[in-house]
Amino acid sequence: MRIVLNVEYAGESFEGWQTQPHGRTVQDSLENALRCIADTPVPTVCAGRTDTGVHATAQVVHFDAPVERPISAWVRGVNSHLPEAVSVRWAQPVADDFHARFSATARHYRYILFNGPVRPALLHARAGWFHRPLDAQRMAEAATAILGEHDFSAFRAAGCQAHSPVRRMRHARVARSGDFVVFDFCADAFLHHMIRNLVGALVYIGKGAQPVSWMAELLAGRDRTRAAPTFSAAGLYLCGVEYPDQWSLPGQGRIICTPQLALPVSCPEPESRSAD
């Protein structure tokens, strides 16, 4: 039986999602816990392979259960074997042709940036930080340039293994909430470091180092070396994955934000998936 999980984790406790020989990843922790319940190795597949330090409020994972267990065993049972920084939120059986990565039609990410003169100790590893005042309106205007389908070569990591740099950005918003600047992005998929590189470029515009038009210029130039440095992973959250309605997943279409920061900024409504 194929099972789909919704997984939440604090990324500073792990060296990314993908399994590594040293075992300090989210996937390693989850598969170790699943093995305790199944009494045999259980390989997993996720919707989005997050980097070291990146958090998730709504990672989606599937696996093929090698044994029959109550659905509660894949939640409470697995959680009893997981470190405190990762938790399975729900589990549900799905048809064998469901795939956490390839069945997804969109991913939602949120970047939370604390914009104040002194770094915030209580938000260490949970929010990015920039000390100089940022103009959120300038950044919001610049972000409109990346909407639609584009070659995002200027915003991909040098080691990115994606076959194509072309992605379709459905939503890009920048909004201020007190001392926080919140960046929301939704696309069919993302390149390696793409969001952190986008945030880095927007911060350059927000601090006045570059004009609003710079975002469009970078996009057209397709040259990573001309863009801003990659921004910190600390404030980045995978907060939603969209799937066609046929899968009837819990909370489908609802974007799970970052409640621990209690930011009064609403998440974007997901687009209709019927056209996909």
TrEMBL record:
It is an enzyme of class 5 (isomerase). Substrate binds at Y109. Its EC number is 5.4.99.12. GO terms for biological process: tRNA pseudouridine synthesis. It catalyses: uridine(38/39/40) in tRNA = pseudouridine(38/39/40) in tRNA. The keyword tRNA processing applies. CDD domains: PseudoU_synth_EcTruA (cd02570). The keyword Transmembrane helix does not apply. Residues 8-102, 142-244 form the Pseudouridine synthase I TruA alpha/beta domain. Belongs to the tRNA pseudouridine synthase TruA family. HAMAP family: TruA (MF_00171). PANTHER family: PSEUDOURIDYLATE SYNTHASE, TRNA PSEUDOURIDINE SYNTHASE-LIKE 1. This is tRNA pseudouridine synthase A. It comes from Denitromonas iodatirespirans.
